[in-house]
Amino acid sequence: MKLNPERAAFVAVDIQNDFCPGGALAVSGGDQIVPLINSLARRFQTAVASQDWHPAGHVSFASSHPGKHPYDSDDATGRALTLWPDHCVQGTPGAELHPLLDEGPYRLIVRKGFRHGLDSYSVFFENDGKTPTGLEGYLRGLSIDTVVLAGLALDYCVFFSALDASALGFSVVVVRDATRAVDVPEGNADRVVADMISRGIAVISIKELA
Ligand code: VGL
Ligand code: ZN
Predict the structure, then answer these.
(1) Per annotation, catalytic residue among 52, 112, 155, 164
(2) Structural domains of the chain ordered from first start
(3) Of the four, 60, 85, 147, 160, which is 20 to 30 A from 169 by CA?
């Protein structure tokens, strides 16, 4: 796959300590993708990183809902109704970008999920489906038409970012080997990949990127 370097942006989703082994919401093998993310980011003129950035007591934390447990679902309104362990709390080491992530290539770091009562999986819109993060405007301002996504987690933040990017009219590419999935419930990763492909999103491996 050949991309126009003037028109394609790379988005590295949530490469943060809490999503890596030892972190609060560890994604199996999350740290293994860091070298791939570094090599991908260097190939793009426009690279953006996102950072899950929650206040303490955030609505997405199971601990904020008496009687609920991490990975339970909640009936609050929103697009995905899962409750999580406390993670990516603003200013804590878990919220920091992974120490081996090379931050040099990134022009912009977008923080999301910072409103107390609203979660944000997507790097484009928070989970109400309408509150923008500003990333769309940033990319349009640079005449970007193609969004290349990788990072954590495939079946949450990467997936919802890919759906939003596609709905906004960007061409969307997901580099699957530079992602890892939560895979809760089990099979979720395969389900979201099939869903993305059915919507015309390209799910490729890193070696397919020219
Ligand atoms: C994420 C669950 C909760 C992610 C963020 O980055 O995929 N997942 N917050
Ligand atoms: Zn989160």
Answers:
(1) 112
(2) 8-56+85-208 (3.40.50.850)
(3) 60
Ligand lying nearest the CA atom of residue 51: 1
For residue 163, give the H/E element and its range: helix 159-167
Strand partners, 204: 175
Range of lowest pLDDT (22-36, 71-85, 188-202)? 71-85
With vertex at residue 117, the alpha carbon angle to CA 90 and CA 68, rounded to the nearest 5 degrees, is 90
**pLDDT score at 78:** 46
Q: List pLDDT tens digits, range 62-83.
A: 999 999 999 887 665 444 568 9
- Name every residue whose Cβ is closer than 8 Å to that of residue 207 and which is 6 or more positions away in sequence: none
Is residue 157 part of the annotated active site? The answer reads: yes
In Å, the largest CA–CA distance within the chain is 51
Question: 202 in helix, strand or coil?
Answer: strand
pTM higher than 0.90: yes
